[in-house]
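Incident log, structure service

09:12 report received: a user says their structure output differs between two submissions of the same chain.
09:20 pulled the input from the user's history:
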Amino acid sequence: MEVATQFAPPASSESVSVRPLRIALVTETFLPKIDGIVTRLCHTIRSLRDFGHQILIIAPQGVDRYEGARVHGVPGFAFPLYPELRLSIPRPSITRALQQFQPDLLHAVNPAVLGVSAFFYSSSHRVPLVVSYHTHLPRYLAYYRLGMLEGAMWRTMCAAYNRADLILATSAVMQHELEDHGIRRVHLWRRGVDTEMFHPARASLEMRSRLTSGHPEDKLLLYIGRLSVEKEIERCREILAALPGVRLALVGDGPHREKLERHFAGTPTFFAGFLRDEELASAYASGDAFILPSRTETLGLVLMEAMAAGCPVVAPRAGGVSDVIHDGVTGCLYDPDRPGDAVEAIRQLLFDADHHARMSRAARRDAEQWSWSAATRQLDHYYQDVMDREQRLPAQIAEQRRAGAPETALCEKLAISRQTFRRHTAR
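09:34 re-ran on a clean worker, output below:
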């Protein structure tokens, strides 16, 4: 069996970690910023520590510790196209922090700028590297009038990611897309959702009145997430025009808010701003349907949270959302090039009470399968396989070299990068 096929989900989600590891997570975004990546990271860190691992977090400055793990904060600056996002540049203090921590394994989360430090440290200190892909950055470029750079970004990502020991995608669609662009050793990291926090029982007439601007009797269409150009929220206006009696609530904030406020002026749209914790859970449960117009989602954690809250979801058949939604059962997928399809899906969902009730129950049942603990058990299994593979490689390389195979053939046969090969042959 080739090394590349030896990464597999654990036989049981209740299996225990083979051995505790010292894991350094290098992430471009972390608390106090809240988004899908940070939410996944927070649950993952909590579970990894419960499994007995020691964690160091390298992230933009913000918090000093999380769940007992030290956070090495790196100074940064606001990204001009998205001021809420802070970019941190690799610097020598990161190397010092990693040397002090002595990680067994590095995990670069959505590496773009700060994440370069993980690749550098992995190469220079011979530490295994796992990369996880959460944001569809190449596709974002077109929304910021930089579409001509998409090909160059894919080539850069391919060259960088193929230096890692394992790549994790958060949906099968994204896994296949990464592979189609030449990225190797890609595996699926299963999704998770907090089904205790997000629950239909958190529905509130007070929250519904707030989100409908005092008209709780109207139908409530809900969007929760970043207010940014790539989310294509403008598309919701034609839904409101076609469906009288439907109101839209936009929960969240972002660089596109002012333009959206102008775009939706005169429509029954409420801008709620950021909501957190119980208020956020209540907002999900108080909506009649959840819409995510974006065609660039790698997964869409908000969809999982809406489903857990019993709020049926409507989204375009694009990106990773088809991994989440069972069309016609737990939600509705529509053709993004046919706006009328979205209108018809929402019309049926909101104005057919029996259909809505069936879909709401099915969405909740589906969400109950996806615990964060099980998702992190799978991640822990991947970590352990990477460490086992690291220990086996020297013997495999020596055996193949005795057979006279050249370096390129060895790398292909063992499914390793040249960086990994040279790391071991240099020992």
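09:41 both user submissions now match this output. Likely a transient worker issue. Closing.
09:42 reviewer note: The chain has two domains: 3-192+372-425, 200-367. Residues 1-6, 8-15 have pLDDT under 50 and may be disordered.
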